[in-house]
Amino acid sequence: MARRLLTLLAALLLALPLGQPPAHAASFGNPVKAQKGADPWIAFHDGNYHLVSTSWSDVITVRKAPTLAGLATAPSVQVWRGDAASRCCNIWAPELHFLNGRWYLYYVAGRTSPTTTRRSAATSWRAPARTPWGRTPTADS
Prior knowledge:
The chain contains one helix and seven strands, in the order αβββββββ. With 141 residues, it is mainly beta.
């Protein structure tokens, strides 16, 4: 008798999920950068967060804010633009590092088509006397 009850209980438990409506995955929106925010990279320096992300264009921009939430409304400042045909239009996965008084920007770039050769590149500049991203720096300035 106990075995029958246990078997019946097991069958009922197995059938339970069948009567449930399918679960729908909740959509997710990046709270820090809603558009063109793939491959985010955040550096913290001098009391501010600095965000770079993939734009799939020929420019790299940085947002700066004292809080992570503040990055959502911080202005995007262009810090680099593709200047060669081999890396003009398809820039992604940028990284930003501050080492020994210099900002270093690493990125991958290619031509318009995603099937073209990809190149890794880097540029750097000295941190200006004022807070970074108040101006467009030039490479190795």
